[in-house]
Amino acid sequence: MFGLRVTPIVISLIVIFGLTLPAFLVYEPLDTDETVSWKLVVVVAIAMFGIAAAVFRILASWWQTRRLIADWRGNAVPITLAAHGLRSYKLRHRFPVFAVVGIFRPRLFIAEQVFETLEEGEIAAVIQHELGHIAAFDNLKRLALSLCGDILVAPVGRSLEQAWSKAAENAADEYAVRTGSGATTALSLASALIKIARIIPNEPEPPMPAASYAFERGHSLAERVQRLLALADQDEVPARPTRRMLVPAVTLISVITTVIAVDHRSLAYIHEVSESVLALLQ
Q1: Residues 39, 41, 42, 44: is their CA dihedral positive or negative?
Q2: Given 32, 52, 92, 135, which is the most exposed site by the fewest CB atoms within 10 A?
C-alpha cells in the first residue's frame, strides 16, 4: 500500500529529472519565438503549488515536531525502562500519551496516568509495539504519504493512507508478539489498549506530525483486540514476507533512465514528445 501511494511520484520525479530535463537542456534552442499560454501558466502554477505545499509540509513537520518535543520535555522527566535504546520520558499531560516522536532520533513519551493505569507487563508490551513502528520507519513513511498527497494537489489516495495506517498498526502488533513473550505479550498489549482507551478524554488528540500513538481513535479497538487474541492462540507468529518492491523497481527505472539519458537519439525523441505535449497547451 505504501508502494502504491509513493511509486507514481517517485517514477515521475525520475522521468522528469532523468529524461525530460536533460533533453530540454541539450536540445532546446537558446533563441526561440515560443510564447507561454495561459493554459500552460495554469498547469505550471498548479505544479508549483503542489511542490511548495510539499516543501512547506516538510519544514512545518520538522518545526512542529521540534516544538512538540521541547514542550513535552519541559513537562517531563527522563526515566529508565527496559533496555531498548530509546530516550524515554515520563510526561505530565491531560491526554494518556504513549508515543514515539521523531524519525531519525525517536523519543518515547509516556504520560503519568498511563503508569498509574497499566501494569509493568502491559507497559513492556506497548513499548514492543512502538519498537515495531521504529523498526519499520513508520513515522518517515507517514510523512512521505502526506507529501505525495501534497504533490498530487488532489484528494486522491486517502483510502490507501488509511489502509496503510491500519496495516502498520497490525504489523507493529505482530512485531511486539513475535519479539516479546508470545501469547503473554499479545494478551498484555490487548489489555493495555483497552485500559488506555478507557482513560482517553473526550477532546482532540494533541497534534503530532512525526509520531506514532500506541492507540489512535481512527482505528477499531475491537478489531485490534480480537486480532491480538487470535495471535495469542498461535504457537508462533511468523515474520511477514518482505515484499519491498519499491527499492528494486526504482533501481530498475533509474538504470533504464540512465541508459536512455546517455543516448542522444533517445533524448532527441523525448524532447520532440515533450514539445508536442507543450504544443497542446499553447
Answers
A1: positive
A2: 32
pLDDT of residue 242: 55
Beta-carbon contacts of residue 172 (< 8 Å; ≥ 6 apart): 129, 130, 132, 133, 136, 138, 212
| 144-202 pLDDT tens trace | 887 777 666 556 667 778 888 888 899 999 999 998 888 999 999 999 999 988 888 87
What are the φ/ψ torsions at residue 28 (nearest 5 degrees)?
Answer: -75, 125
Strands 87-91, 107-111: parallel, antiparallel or unpaired by DSSP?
parallel
In the chain, the amino acid numbered 39 is: K
Render pLDDT for 92-107 as a digit per residue (tens, 0 to 9). Answer: 888 888 888 888 888 8
Please state, in angstroms and rounded to a whole number, the distance separating the CA atoms of residues 27 and 24: 6
User: Could you tell me if 6 and 148 are in contact, meaning their C-beta atoms sit under 8 angstroms apart?
Assistant: yes
| DSSP letter assigned to residue 239 | P
* Residue 99, all three cell numbers: 508515543
For the chain, which ranges sit under pLDDT 70?
32, 82-83, 150-157, 204-219, 238-250, 261
Task: Compute the distance between CA of residue 175 and CA of residue 136 in angstroms, rounded to an integer.
Answer: 10
Q: Which three cell numbers stand for residue 210?
A: 512525526
Say if pTM beats, i.e. exceeds, 0.70. yes
DSSP class of residue 236 equals -
Show Cβ contacts of residue 131 under 8 Å, excluding neighbours closer than 6 positions.
84, 86, 175, 176, 179
What distance in Å separates the CA atoms of residue 100 and residue 23, rounded to the nearest whole number? 45
Q: Which of 50, 130, 147 is nearest to 85 (CA)?
A: 130
